[in-house]
Design goal:
Blueprint lengths: L2 E2 L3 E4 L6 H8 L2 H6 L8 H16 L5 E6 L2 E12 L2 E8 L8 H15 L4 E7 L3 H9 L3 E11 L2 E11 L3
Parallel strand pairs: 5-6
Antiparallel strand pairs: 1-2, 2-3, 3-4, 4-5, 6-8, 7-8
Helix pairs in contact: 1-3, 4-5
Length: 168
């Protein structure tokens, strides 16, 4: 997945981004709402980093880093594909919260995915993550009538879903 928005570049994750990606994968704040293993140290997260690099290089997959002025600030990734529907997830380093980057990148991803033949883009977030729910709303997504109850890190979370379907 490779495209640009007004301020951001969305592209494959590079090995040179290891420190920033490991910061994201091991960040306690990110781990509260983006489902990740609970790593005890950065070294434990290295296999996931390597996997993300490989997946982001694979043009049949939808995994990418989000870059601001050449620096990795977050990522977006497919979580499930069913025919013409794709579910996406996203996570950002907390230093970049509340600046519109997630909305800008995800809106761009929705357009990119529609162009690639996905009629519907779906995303979900924990009910206790209103910022992520706002990102989906700002991207023109509509709240779905169903929810999931998910066990994550010893707690039960209600996952709320949003979707957008390409017209025509």
């Amino acid at each position: 997945m490779r495209f640009e928005t007004k301020r951001l570049e969305i592209k494959p994750i590079d090995l040179a981004d290891k420190d920033d990606v490991l910061d994201l994968l091991t960040n306690e704040i990110v781990g509260r709402t983006y489902m990740l293993p609970e790593y005890q140290c950065r070294e434990e997260a290295e296999p996931l980093f390597q996997r993300l690099v490989r997946l982001s290089q694979d043009e049949s997959r939808y995994v990418a880093g989000v870059y601001l002025d050449g620096r990795f600030i977050g990522m977006m990734n497919e979580t499930e594909i069913k025919e013409h529907q794709i579910e996406m997830g996203y996570a950002y380093l907390p230093d970049y919260y509340n600046r519109g980057y997630a909305t800008e990148a995800f809106a761009g991803a929705i357009g990119y995915l529609h162009e690639r033949g996905f009629a519907t883009v779906l995303a979900g977030a924990f009910a206790e993550n209103p910022a992520s729910l706002r990102v989906m709303e700002k991207c023109g997504m509509t709240r779905q009538s169903y929810t999931d109850e998910l066990e994550y890190r010893g707690l039960t979370h209600t996952c709320i879903y949003y979707a957008i379907t390409k017209e025509g």
